[in-house]
Prior knowledge:
The chain has about 325 residues and is an alpha/beta fold.
Amino acid sequence: MVHPRSDPNTTEARLRADVHALARPEGRRVGTTGHAAAVAWLNKRLEASGLDPYGETYALPYEVARARFVNLAAVAPGRDRGVTPIVLGAHYDTAGDWPGADDNAAAVAIALEVGARLRADPAARDVVVALFDAEEPPYFHSAAMGSTRFLHDQMAGPVHAAMILDLVGHELEEPGTSDLTFVTGMESDPDLERAIASLPEVAGTRLVTALNAYVGDLSDHHAFRLARIPYLFFTCGRWRHYHRSTDTPDRLAYGKMAALADVVEALIRDVADRVLEGPWEGYDTTPTDARLMRAAFGPFLERSGLRLETRDDVARLVGTLLERFAL
Length: 327
């Protein structure tokens, strides 16, 4: 179950404060003064959180082709320090000189919130809160991408599972779908499906699962999937303010973000207790995908005459959703 927390409005206030502090008008594009200011603020914010530095310090600089980057990472110690950790990750850079509230200050704020809860009441294993650099173009899927460098150069050992967040701060605009959050990667281990099926209802957001193959590696889960590490990727998809100067803190849905923080916390606590043994992408998630999609899109399915029984049915619906939600 979700760990008891303070009043939801207090959670929303913390999320709002972190987003406003990080999502400055000048943005956080690599190599800019805004990026340097973001690194300095995140370092202080992690110090204030009480989380332990993952390395000697929170900041983990690296260099690729003479360009300099900085990942930041902290640890919420678990009850058993001797087992492999979970990574909770979100990138903090922006693609241009704009605030980047949804992309991706909202996800950073949620990661900080969940990390603080796990520091106060530990999960079964360590949780590494990783704030990645260089997710945005021109570094996306390159050797300089922060999550790739973190996994291959900066992680001290194996990873139990990864939970990655990106574009999780906004409401969807189709009627009846505002509270939805999409999740891919459940197919990477059967126990991830069991964890999602075991979630209690959380007012404020509903999950819709789908195969990652439908949309591809849209964010930092890319490195973990290639390394065959079980993962879940959370997103609300792109929206009209994506990569624009209008991606500002006042447009975010802080109640939905607070609900998603509850969901992510609950999943981390559950998955921390599980033995993830595979098979890797070796089983059929159709029943769970179809069930959650029917719950989320029932009226739309009725109007469209679509049925959700087979994998082909799910694929056809996803094709329609991709056009509507621009994932």
